[in-house]
Design brief:
Pfam families: Amidohydro_3
Protein name: Amidohydrolase family protein
Largest sheet: 8 strands, mixed
Radius of gyration: 24 Å
Organism: Caproiciproducens galactitolivorans
Strand content: 15-25%
């Protein structure tokens, strides 16, 4: 349920980050209804404090516009909680008993899904007991991180994937089943609440194909005024090619304040560590190879140009510098106004890029969707060893080169590839400003951004990416009141000490949706 709005909510802070390019303001901000009604220096605050129903003095806590995660997948996140909970189940015999009990209150022909399987501690009875007990009913139990699963032969036959390959693009045949499971609507609301607790008030969400009926859930939640999240969603073709008719239908279906259809999204290359990133120069450890599996550039170009002609965006996910270059070449062929892309096409990830192509991105108006927390997944030496093995020489200097993007005029925005990462803005500052890995070691500091720049990327730049910059993304009079508050002064705290900070207050559309202030 959405909360009631306060009549004249006043926030006082020594660090109001407006995202307009100015330094943080020591002052006040007034919310009335769902709009920012006034903002100014502390010396002018008293008149508003006197008439306000609710005043919050935040001290040195940082007030910012609400954050935007520009690359999320609910379809992946929900697998952490879908169906039966396998936590603590230690054998296939125990698992079969738990599944049989779980099915007592389900239709007999409904497939069984589950989460939190723990394969390291799981004992088998010496045969494929799951397939034997359920020869005709698909059963799939995922690990918490969704890297693998316990599944029977019926599931393999019906869904066409294996425990060795169960990433999102492989499990799409399952999605129509689990996106229509009882309780999925509440899981989506829980997902939104989780994001609100991290200060996120807008997302660019990736769906697959036609989203298998889930758009009806989104439409209903918006009509019932139950969304505390602006959702700009895109279609990622997996089971079929680009579906322009679906895009046109979604553009007509969603014209409200909270849900909009943006366009299409597709992978190009994959990880450099596995020789799947497309490089300009060959791999150091495979001198004959620039990409182990060729990218479907002919198909991608055809689809991108079709989307562009119909006024849709097409964001492409690139990890290697060759894929980035190929994509910029492709965007050069799209419609332009005064030399810049008419439709706001984007490149996601950009793990390794060539500086010349980042300059071209800036001139063209290509948006960058970077993962600022990505270094939190690894130890520094592991990455340095991988770079030395795969790239060699000094090629590692172009890894995660956000500095060059920013200086080239690229609109840098932030994503997490959720559920790969869960949005954590203090951690993103730690990684993308300090260059720190999970072990506290730093790398390529010359390629990193400033605190003000990374907050700009999370706010106004993110809203530009969602076509919301006229109504959201800055703290200015008349803008919609989507606001986040960090419980630390991130502007004056050493970067290495920022990681443990939290979001203590989130306001979405003028309503307080998360509050841990005491």
């Amino acid at each position: 349920m959405r909360t009631e709005r306060e009549e004249f909510l006043v926030l006082l802070s020594k660090n109001i980050f407006t995202a307009t390019g100015e330094k943080p303001l020591d002052g006040f901000l007034v919310v009335k209804g769902n709009r920012i009604f006034a903002i100014g220096p502390r010396s002018e605050s008293e008149v508003w404090v006197q008439k306000a129903r609710h005043v919050i003095d935040l001290g040195r806590r940082v007030v910012t516009p609400g954050f935007v995660d520009n690359h999320t997948f609910f379809t992946g996140y929900v697998l952490r909680s879908i169906g039966i909970d396998f936590t603590g189940i230690r054998s296939d015999v125990e698992g079969i008993a738990a599944i049989q009990k779980y099915r007592e209150n389900r239709p007999a022909d409904k497939p069984v899904f589950g989460h939190c399987w723990e394969p390291a501690d799981f004992q088998y009875s010496g045969e494929d007991l799951l397939s034997k007990e359920f020869p005709d009913l698909p059963v799939v139990i995922f690990t918490f991180d969704r890297d693998t699963c316990w599944m029977n032969q019926a599931a393999r036959d019906q869904y066409g994937f294996t425990p060795e390959e169960c990433y999102a693009e492989k499990i799409y045949r399952m999605m129509p089943e689990y996106l229509n499971e009882e309780g999925i609507e509440q899981k989506y609301l829980d997902y939104i609440q989780m994001l609100n607790e991290r200060g996120v008030t807008a997302i660019k969400e990736m769906s697959f194909d036609t989203y298998y009926g889930f758009t009806d859930v989104m439409e209903r939640l918006e009509k019932e005024d139950r969304l505390n999240m602006r959702v700009a969603f895109m279609s990622q073709p997996v089971g079929e090619g680009i579906n322009l008719a679906h895009g046109e239908a979604m553009r007509e279906k969603f014209k409200g304040d909270f849900v909009r259809f943006e366009g299409f999204n597709r992978m190009t290359d994959r990880g450099i560590a596995r020789f799947l990133g497309e490089l300009i120069e060959p791999y150091a450890s495979k001198p004959e190879t620039t990409c182990l599996v060729p990218v479907e550039w002919e198909l991608i170009e055809k689809e991108t140009l079709e989307a562009d002609r119909h006024g849709f965006r097409y964001s492409l996910h690139c990890q290697g510098d060759g894929a980035v270059r190929h994509t910029v070449d492709l965007y050069e062929k799209c419609e332009k106004v005064n030399g810049r892309l008419k439709n706001r096409h984007a490149i996601t990830d950009l793990e390794y890029s060539n500086p010349a192509d980042l300059e071209r991105m800036g001139r063209l108006g290509v948006i960058a969707e970077v993962y600022p927390q990505i270094q939190s997944l690894d130890k520094k030496q592991d990455i340095l060893d991988m770079i030395a093995t795969q790239l060699g020489g000094d090629r590692g200097k172009n890894y995660w080169n956000r500095r060059k993007m920013w200086d080239s005029g690229v609109c840098v925005t932030c994503g997490t590839d959720l559920p790969l990462l869960i949005p954590d803005i203090p951690e993103s500052i730690y990684c993308a400003v300090g260059g720190y890995f999970k072990d506290g070691e730093s790398f390529n500091r010359q390629n990193m951004l400033t605190v003000q720049e990374i907050l700009t990327a999370w706010t106004i730049n993110g809203q530009y990416n969602c076509y919301n910059e006229d109504r959201l993304g800055t703290l200015e009079v008349g803008k919609l009141a989507d606001i986040a508050v960090l419980d630390a002064d991130v502007f004056h705290t050493p970067v290495e000490k920022i990681r443990d900070a939290k979001v203590c207050l989130t306001i979405s559309d003028g309503r307080i949706v998360h509050n841990t202030l005491r």
